[in-house]
Request: fold
Amino acid sequence: MAAIQRALISVSDKTGIVEFAQQLHKAGVEILSTGGTLLALQDAGIAAHDVAKVTDFPEMMDGRLKTLHPRVHGGLLGRRDNAQDLEDMAAHGIPAIDLLYVNLYPFEDTIAKGADYDTSIENIDIGGPAMIRAASKNHGHVATVVDPEDYADLIAELDASKGATTYALRRKLASVAYARTAARSEEHTSELQSHHDLVCRLLLEK
Reply:
């Protein structure tokens, strides 16, 4: 069992996020967050903290750079049963993050709405997939949620296990998370390829 003491929540689809965070807060979990998610949680009266206070680095580049920082990724990747990892975390002020909830930019919706190429590119998520892959790799210690449909199972297990998660659930969530990032990468590839093909056709027509 792995106890959840700190969670990082950063979502595009905010369906049920307030209720989910309330359950975590009730269980004594410290919540870190970013941007619009942070505002939504704080507006609902939930004590969430800006991840920038952990990184000591502001969000910048129109939101392109938020969570790509050793204090975030170290907190997700650090093995709780590895003495060297724990020593590194302590030496560099890296807090352990036990739960990650991230859902990705709605890239497919952006494309379906006929967005231009530059807008499509700006909707390619970088920080989200990086955190998802890091947390999922470390599923021996970290739970990763990418879909509101997984809220109920996680909260039920936290209630049943006094604030902890089982390896079986963390592994299941990691497999869902990797499938989600893989599917999104395929969407990015398809969009870039279709643009490339269009440019080639236009050049040939000249």
The first strand starts at residue 2 and ends at 3.
